[in-house]
Amino acid sequence: MRVKKSVILLFLISVILFPVYSNWEIGEIVDDFGDPTGDNFVYCLVDNGKMSNSATINETCKVRIMATLSSSVFPQIKFEFQIHDYNWNNPVNEFYTDSNSFLQFKDDKGKVIKFNCENSKYSTSWNKLYDENAFKFYEMLVNSDKIKAAISCENVKYNFIFDTEDFLKKIEEIIDKKEKVDKESSWNISISDSAYSDYQFASVSKYFKLTSNNKEYALSFSINGYPDDLEDTPSISLYLYNYCYNNLYLRDKSEIKGLKLFCGSSSLNIEDYPTPYPYFTIGRDVKKTQLNNLLAKGSNVRFEVEFKNNHNSITFNIKSSELKKYVNYPYPKDIINNLN
Fold it and tell me: Does pTM surpass 0.85?
């Protein structure tokens, strides 16, 4: 017993004197009841970070860095920095709704990347990286051995250092488990809670894998239905994923010039509905009547995505009968039981 106590004491002293940077591990996502969902994430624990504010300097903070893949078909990576003041029992859940944060990272070669993040009344995002920002951080992770981080929000600043060893290996293990789509998927149906009301809304989507000028793209064509008192037509979104690196995709609409729909001898030109989000959206300016008139002209609808910078356009086809069914469905009434 004395030998065991001595070993434990020596181990604790070594950890205090020589801080150990945690390796990356794979965790399992659970639902509200604590049951595994079958999805995984990659994480790293930092025990020896530093926190400073107007009342204290260089107090201990602990950080859990999480990397998750937000799409089951075309994996996109996102990061979250879960910070704990003093110990693991004191998480920093969020700052004020209108808070802005400044995230900085420096690799072992001296390169620095910076991000401004902000909260909104619909989400807490001061400690999260999505889309292009997440991919920039991902590139730094896979090309560095050690990274220094400085995160500031309001009058608080957090500093910590973490290793990148095993990060890519663990991410690839998760990616390998994901479903792969080589060309085209069947319709996928999902039901979600609306962030803007007490209603639920439905989304039906179809995935495509396409190429233009030897560059690989993935498309998700999505019809989103809303309650009748909010909109008189479902909106249609076109998510463009550029193939980036190591089987990851980046959601980005910056290369899209426009979208055209062809059915029989008729066509419909679509302009992007202005949103701050990185996907092409057909909004309120396209009504059910317009789409139904087009769908009546033939048995198939050809979608042509036009690119900037002289890229060849890419096309995909959907049966008119399929599209008409989802465009005209009375969202969200009876949708869970009847939308097949």
Answer: no
pLDDT in tens, 217-265: 777 777 666 554 444 555 667 777 777 777 787 777 777 777 888 999 9
Which residues neighbour 315 within 8 Å (Cβ) at sequence distance 6 or greater?
Answer: 302, 303, 304, 305
| Dist CA 334 CA 337 (whole Å) | 6
Residues 6+ apart with CB under 8 A from 234: 223, 224, 225, 226, 288, 326, 327, 329, 331
pLDDT of residue 8: 41
pLDDT reported for residue 214? 74
Q: What are phi and psi of 268, to 5 degrees?
A: -140, 120
Residue located via tokens 């001061």: 126
**SS3 category, 306:** strand
Q: Which two tokens stand for residue 86?
A: 């003093």
Residue 192 has pLDDT above 50, yes or no: yes
In sequence order, what DSSP letters do the residues of 100-113 get, joined into one string? Answer: EEEEEEEETTS-EE
Sequential DSSP letters for 176-200: HHS---SSB---EEEEEE-SSSS-E
Cα–Cα distance list, 203 to 238, 275, 281, 326 (Å): 12, 18, 14, 9
Residue labelled with tokens 């995505």: 305
What's the average model confidence in pLDDT over 82-87? 90
- pLDDT of 286 reads 62
Amino acid at 298: G
Contacts of 39 (CB under 8 A, 6+ apart): 28, 29, 68
- Tens of pLDDT along 210-219? 777 777 777 7
Rounded CA separation 217/305 (Å): 11
Dihedral sign for Cα atoms in the order 244, 248, 249, 250: negative
In whole angstroms, give the CA distance from residue 23 to residue 80.
17
